[in-house]
């Protein structure tokens, strides 16, 4: 990627969000910014990147939008006028909101949009990814992704999904929805549900967007201060998981945590993640992402696999289960219990869970049976786990474990 | 101000007629109270409850002579039990009204914007 494109990508969300507020229309904002990119590609290589590229892009794109709207006004006066004048946000009591990206992410992640459309719109508008890039990341044809995004934008316009930070009681819920979208993007990158094993681009993008959200929401007062620790928690969680990425694959086979080469982990990300976890602890408003980050901090804190503080991990899972009880949390807790109290105790917990069609459940069960020397049952569970995942690296790992049974 | 249609989708599995008198009265009172709030907020355009689907008749006037058949037209499970037409500044406000309306009438509500043109 050239430096112009890198700068453009980095500033895209901020600039497009400002343009949406000014012109009240996502398409107008996007087209104007695309026009501004053309100008930037002409000028920046010759004159150098301006000292404040976001301000430059905002100014040039603003002029392009006005030009375009004037042209369209001649052609379609009614539409252009509506687009120019419709600025719903100016008079609304939005509180101390300063960053337009924050409004835009709440629009993109609105519960009235289908979940897959929230993801696509967020990557397009806040991440500045092209439609082709998003289509590639989710392995769907470009035309399908383009339709998805067009449909979502049409709904925003027709149903008037607002461009603002939700107020009052709605805010914590809606923020949780935004964080869920960001975590979905990350997870699809971290352990793809498709054959592609790891999609680094999606992990990196999710971290960048969460960082943006953190920046944009850091200075909000109540009730945002209730949700802010979870933003920090999610950022920490992503950083600590992503830090292990260099050690997660060996010759296309998944390497699980105990067998990873810890010296290959990204120490800068771990350091940042740990600092964020400490910041969360100081805020003392625990939430699910913060606790999961803390669990991962226990892992990344251990110099080798044998020195992990499993009692700490189990205690944190207990806290997580109290806050958000779910069979998945119980399953992950059982993995830690196996280290603390042995595989027999863990298997009893696992066998009580109704998760038969979940690949991680079968894989966990297989591993516990294997450790108990119940190889026939283990082999069967490995078979089920393999059948339930498309991820090539995971299948390769499971097949390897199965082959070494007995 | 933009207008939204809030359609009340009745589930045929819930037989309102068989509910105890007291509960029906309470639902009626809750809906009346909700209607008053909408009016007081200046968001009221129109609203009405519909008779049961057995009372529906379908007309197809596209041909030379109209074809009239016993209704309803839609085969869908849920049927339109009534509706509100309200004014709201944006979808979030409409969704908030719909939530309160749904609570009052004990049914799912579909929110749809009117064509702005």
Give a written overview of the molecule.
The complex is a heterodimer of chains A (406) and B (117). Chain A is mostly helical and 406 residues long. Chain A is 71% helix and 1% strand. Chain B is of the alpha+beta class and 117 residues long. Chain B is built from 2 helices and 6 strands, in the order E-H-E-E-E-E-H-E. The longest helix of chain B has 20 residues, at 21-40. Chain B starts with a strand and ends with a strand. The A-B interface holds A 88, 110, 112, 158-162, 166, 170 and B 2, 89-92, 95, 111-113, 116.
Query: What structural class should be given to the helix and strand makeup of chain A?
Result: mainly alpha
Helix share of residues of chain A? Answer: over 70%
The sequence of SSEs of chain A as H and E is HHHHHHHHHHHEEHHHHHHHH
Strand order of the largest sheet of chain B: 2-5-1-6
Largest sheet of chain A: 2 strands, antiparallel
| Rounded Rg of chain B | 16 Å
Strand segment count of chain B: 6
Average residue pLDDT of chain B: 92
Roughly how many Å apart are the termini of chain A? 50 Å
Provide key terms for this protein:
heterodimer, A: 406 residues, mainly alpha, B: alpha+beta, four-stranded antiparallel sheet, two-stranded antiparallel sheet, 2 helices, 6 strands, flat
């Amino acid at each position: 990627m050239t430096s112009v494109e890198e700068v453009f990508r980095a500033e895209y969300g901020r600039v497009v969000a400002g343009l949406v507020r000014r012109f009240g229309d996502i398409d107008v904002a996007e087209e104007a910014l695309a026009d501004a990119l053309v100008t930037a590609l002409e000028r920046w290589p010759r004159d150098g990147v301006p000292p404040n590229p976001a301000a430059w892009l905002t100014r040039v794109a603003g002029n392009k939008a006005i030009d375009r709207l004037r042209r369209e006004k001649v052609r379609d006066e009614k539409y252009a006028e509506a687009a120019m004048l419709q600025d719903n946000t100016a008079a609304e009591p939005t509180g101390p909101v300063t960053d337009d990206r924050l409004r835009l992410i709440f629009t993109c992640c609105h519960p009235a949009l289908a979940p897959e459309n929230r993801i696509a719109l967020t990557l397009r508008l806040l991440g500045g990814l092209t439609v082709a890039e998003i289509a590639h990341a989710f392995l769907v044809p470009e035309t399908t992704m383009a339709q998805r995004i067009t449909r979502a934008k049409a709904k925003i316009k027709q149903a008037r999904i607002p461009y603002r930070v939700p107020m009052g009681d709605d805010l914590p819920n809606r923020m949780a929805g935004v964080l869920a979208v960001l975590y979905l993007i990350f997870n699809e990158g971290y352990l793809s549900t498709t054959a592609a094993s790891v999609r680094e681009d999606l992990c990196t993008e999710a971290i960048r967007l969460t960082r943006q959200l953190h920046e944009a929401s850091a200075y909000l007062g109540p009730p945002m201060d209730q949700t802010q620790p979870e933003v920090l928690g999610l950022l920490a969680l992503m950083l600590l998981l992503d830090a292990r990425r260099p050690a997660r694959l060996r010759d296309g086979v998944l390497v699980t945590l105990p067998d990873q080469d810890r010296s290959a982990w990204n120490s800068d990300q771990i350091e940042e993640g740990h600092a964020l976890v400490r910041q969360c602890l100081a805020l003392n408003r625990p939430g699910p992402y913060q606790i999961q980050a803390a669990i991962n901090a226990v892992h990344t804190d251990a110099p080798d696999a044998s020195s992990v503080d499993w009692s700490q991990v189990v205690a944190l899972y207990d806290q997580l289960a109290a806050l958000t009880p779910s069979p998945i949390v119980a399953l992950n807790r059982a993995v830690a219990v196996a280290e603390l109290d042995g595989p027999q105790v863990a298997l009893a917990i696992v066998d009580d869970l109704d998760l038969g069609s979940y690949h991680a459940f079968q894989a966990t069960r297989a591993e516990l049976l294997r450790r108990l020397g119940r190889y026939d049952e283990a082999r069967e569970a490995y078979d089920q786990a393999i059948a339930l995942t498309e991820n090539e690296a995971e299948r390769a790992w499971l097949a390897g474990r199965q082959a070494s049974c007995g | 101000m933009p207008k939204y249609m809030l359609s009340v989708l009745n589930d045929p599995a819930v037989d309102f007629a068989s509910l105890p008198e007291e509960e029906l009265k309470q639902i009626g009172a809750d809906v009346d109270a909700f209607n008053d709030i909408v009016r007081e907020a200046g968001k009221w355009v129109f609203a009405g409850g519909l008779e049961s689907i057995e009372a529906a008749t379908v007309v197809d006037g596209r041909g030379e002579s109209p074809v009239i058949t016993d209704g309803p037209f839609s085969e869908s499970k849920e049927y339109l039990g009534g509706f509100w037409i309200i004014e709201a500044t944006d979808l979030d406000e409409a969704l908030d009204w719909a939530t309160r309306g749904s609570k009052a009438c004990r049914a799912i509500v579909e929110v749809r914007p009117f064509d702005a043109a």
